């Protein structure tokens, strides 16, 4: 599907605040409510809009300790990669897991309450996964930018 300028503007508006009504969106886009509704439905059908979510302030729910954990596997076989990925997906503390190139195989974004909670996670959950060769943890000092908006 090719996105036109209106689709792109609509996507930015929805990413900024997906609770806006089709009427509010129609006023910003200078389109009818029906046209906006149909565009949204088309974007959903095509899989461009995957989901709608509520963004939670992690500091208000005592999950403000962010760790970026780099992992190396002991081998790079398809079996080891598949097994690790199927296990790491199940860990609630892991918000993101990216298979990367370079010195490490994966980078995890882990969210916990504090250093003690991270140690518990590391010792009881992460290092119990099969095929992990080594880990290196980096702790967030401050969040400079965190955006969910993809711009066009």
Features:
2 domains; four-stranded antiparallel sheet; Alpha-Beta Plaits; alpha+beta; Arc Repressor Mutant, subunit A; 4 strands; single chain; 152 residues; elongated
Task: Put the structure in a nutshell.
The protein is an alpha+beta fold and 152 residues long.
How does this model look, in words?
This protein is of the alpha+beta class. It has two domains: 5-46, Arc Repressor Mutant, subunit A, CATH 1.10.10; 58-139, Alpha-Beta Plaits (2-Layer Sandwich). Helices cover 36% and strands 20% of the residues. It has helices at 5-16, 22-29, 33-45, 78-88, 115-124; strands spanning 65-73, 94-99, 106-112, 132-139. The chain has a four-stranded antiparallel beta sheet with strand order 2-3-1-4. The longest helix has 13 residues, at 33-45. InterPro entries: ArsR-like_HTH, AsnC-type_HTH_dom, Dimeric_a/b-barrel, Tscrpt_reg_AsnC-like, Tscrpt_reg_AsnC/Lrp_C, Tscrpt_reg_HTH_AsnC-type_CS, WH-like_DNA-bd_sf, WH_DNA-bd_sf. Residues 3-66 form the HTH asnC-type domain. One of its GO terms (biological process) is regulation of DNA-templated transcription. This is AsnC family transcriptional regulator.
